[in-house]
Amino acid sequence: MSDAPALSETSASRPSRRRRAAPRLALLAGTGTALLALALLGPEVFDRFTINVLTRSMIYAMLAITVDLLWGFAGVLTFGQAAFFGVGAYATAMILTHVGSSPALLALALVAAVLIPAAMGWLVGWMSFYHGSTAFYATVISLLVPIVVTQLIYAGGATTGSSSGLVGYWGMDLSLDGYFRLAGVCLAAMTVAALVFVKSDAGRVLTAIRDNELRCAYLGLSPQRIKIRLTAALGAAAGFAGWLYANASGVVAPEISSFVFGTELVVWTALGGRATVLGPVLGALGIDWLSASLSGEMPFLWQLVIGALFVAMIIVLPNGLAALVTRGFGRRGGDPAMGAAPPLVEAPPAAEPGAAPLSDLSAPLLAVRDLSKSYGAHKVLQGIDLEIRPGELVSLVGPNGAGKTTLMRCLTDGDARSGGEAEIAGRSIDGLTPDRIVALGVGRKFQVASVFESLTVAECLRMARVSIDRPSPWASAETLALPAAAIEILRLTGLDRMLGAPVSLLSHGQKQSLELAMVVCLEPRLILLDEPTAGLTKTERATIGAVLRKLTAELGCAAILVEHDLDFVRDISSRIVVLHQGRLVLDGTVEAVVNSDTVREIYSGGGHA
Length: 609
Fold this sequence. Notes:
Elements: H1 14-45, H2 48-73, H3 81-98, H4 103-129, H5 135-154, E1 166-167, H6 176-198, H7 201-211, H8 213-217, H9 223-249, E2 251-252, H10 259-272, H11 278-297, H12 302-316, H13 322-326, E3 344-346, E4 366-375, E5 378-388, E6 393-397, H14 404-412, E7 419-424, E8 427-428, H15 434-438, E9 442-445, H16 457-463, E10 480-482, H17 484-493, H18 508-521, E11 526-530, H19 538-554, E12 558-562, H20 566-572, E13 575-580, E14 583-588, H21 590-594, H22 597-603
Helix pairs in contact: 1-6, 2-6, 2-9, 2-10, 2-11, 3-4, 3-5, 3-9, 4-5, 4-9, 7-16, 10-11, 11-12, 16-18, 17-18, 17-19
């Protein structure tokens, strides 16, 4: 279960906070202490062969952490970190070989080893995560990058040493023990920093993207931009590891940037324990050291032995090596399904969204003109004209297949419609991505509850505030600050008592309520709701209806509601719009539409509202 901020709502439960925080602090302290002890005491214990191998293994472990952050936490399977590592190592070796090895040039090599892979990472990220790309496409790009880098090294002639690599240059003036200690300290620092980050509010954003990228976009985040920045940052980290490797080894060869090495990093991460940070460290240290040891003692059988151990480990430890270490830091006592819950506090009103504030409340908040949507020759929507003003709650009804959900999609994605115009507060949404439309003050609830299954209720709600309240990269907020309307939804549906519960344990109706609360957390001016009461009890529907009436009548929001419950629609709507066969056939008051002969004719044909 994901870690929730360790605060409770009452003073009586504050000891729970301390109990919940203790395992996290113990894990951080234990990890940092163990790695520092290895770095400082290793030369006093190990022979020179082991010191030499473990120095390399610790550098590889730093690289494996970057793979885990991308794959384990952000959900981006990558084979390309070896390329960034190789570029950093070669940038260092080329400067030290062809220019010199003074302290100033060592510093220059460090800058080059970090900045060049960072720029390369930004370019790779841009190619991998442009709007509309798929996870498979990004993985293919990561497969190609190390192949291209390796071929450039082969083609570099004397500059890169071609297939022989570069050797014989001078790096930092450190002994074998000194490099061992330096690599160990760097690994300890990177491991603790990564653990702190992934447990922070900013780190939870990566998990949210891995779980549900679409929902992130409709919470005002840009998964593409986040993944591009992450790729660039981790490219820089891999380049730093390459700089350290080039100094410590005194030789660089094309193999360190190859696809094969990139695959090894993924295997080490998987066997160590994906999405644990500590697992990839254990995987890289243990497997690389074991491979080096067995290859000397069993030159013809070591790969068979390693393969057999891999299979045994997958069977015995399906969660990886990290499970052996972290098992003792799990929750002790209490309900294992319920984490500590942060106290709810009311957030101050957010600044006005990206669109200009409306001075005339009679002016349309949403204006749609001649909107159409086609899939090839099949026309789903055609000739849709619609205006929604602040304070209106407009219900969109029609038979199944009338195009209601498609219309919702066309209003929240600037590239979704085939023709026509759509404006939010006078600004065209043409070509805008969902996160930019959310910034105009639009919130969307999906037909099927779209939440984050790996997070807790409180963490999901905090994700809904990320576009408004910048999350910390090193801490979790001690309180959960939400708008009053969102808090009211939580209290009326009982979710305020389940803030520490994993979302995966919620019922269908509870997930529906949670998603609605997440949308309201955005403080939108226009809310698009696709069957918000599906799966709720009669009492819960009345509660949601009261909240929607308050949002529109008292707070001046506008809402478009797709709903199958005509009684619910009749009770809360200010207008009803009827879609039939992709066309808007009625737009009027509740009574006028409900009593219309056209509506009776439409539904007598077997459709359902």
